[in-house]
Amino acid sequence: GSVLPPLEPGKLRLYSMLYCPFAQRTRLVLAHKRIPFEVVNINLKCKPEWLFDKNPLGLVPILEKDERIVYESAVCDEYLDAEYPGLSLLPKEPYVRARMQMLMESCGKMRKYTNLHGYCNGYFRSQENYLLLRLPFHKFYENALKSSKYLAGDSLSMADLHIWPFIERIYLLKELVGIEVLSPDACPQLTQYTQRMFQEPCVKATRIDVKKYIEYRNAYSKGVFPDDV
């Protein structure tokens, strides 16, 4: 397996995978809060043995600094927000925070809607089935955006960075398989929100490159799993 690179004292490291939405959550937080870090990308189809020493589940994201290790995306993101003050992403008022976390929890119910490999390989078999993907996004997020610019208010918050990777993947379907799931007519608030989010510096820094993803997908379909993802 691959050799674990040495970590310099005092340096923050993120173990990631380029197309993992959960790792993207943490990259968004790091970018938004302008936290210096280095990244080690993991081939999740050929996991190095040392990965399980960092996280017994063998999953990313994982944060490491000075022998301190944190994993699970939501835990990583809350840790970063607390450890690196300034540009706080979580409200202090308990009820407002609870409302935000309820919205964030909705993502856990929609994991099956974010499988880009499944989308591109015809997993949903028909355009009608693809369009059914619209329902949960409309239910949770179109309505939330009717009264605010962002998902939990008029400024970027943890809710946006937690949920954005899943919304971005749905919009990618138009370029990947030619199906517009969240159309402007069906989801006007989400359409405006997406245009706004694509202008955020942290989103620009972590945005999926469609051409590179297609190259990766083609290699993946042949059983080749590049190490640089």
Automatic annotation (TrEMBL):
Keywords, alphabetical: Oxidoreductase, Transferase
Domain GST N-terminal residue range list: 10-88
Gene3D superfamilies assigned to the protein according to its UniProt record, in alphabetical order: 1.20.1050.10, Glutaredoxin
Pfam families: GST_C, GST_N_3
Domain GST C-terminal positions: 93-220
Catalytic activity: RX + glutathione = an S-substituted glutathione + a halide anion + H(+); L-dehydroascorbate + 2 glutathione = glutathione disulfide + L-ascorbate; methylarsonate + 2 glutathione + H(+) = methylarsonous acid + glutathione disulfide + H2O
GO BP term, pick one: glutathione metabolic process
InterPro entries, A to Z: Glutathione-S-Trfase_C-like, Glutathione-S-Trfase_C_sf, Glutathione_S-Trfase, Glutathione_S-Trfase_N, GST_C, GST_omega, GST_Omega/HSP26, Thioredoxin-like_sf
MF terms in GO: glutathione dehydrogenase (ascorbate) activity; glutathione transferase activity; methylarsonate reductase activity
Keyword DNA-binding annotated: no
Family in the record: Belongs to the GST superfamily. Omega family.
Chain's role: Exhibits glutathione-dependent thiol transferase activity. Has high dehydroascorbate reductase activity and may contribute to the recycling of ascorbic acid. Participates in the biotransformation of inorganic arsenic and reduces monomethylarsonic acid (MMA).
Protein name, entry field: Glutathione S-transferase omega
Organism of origin: Capitella teleta
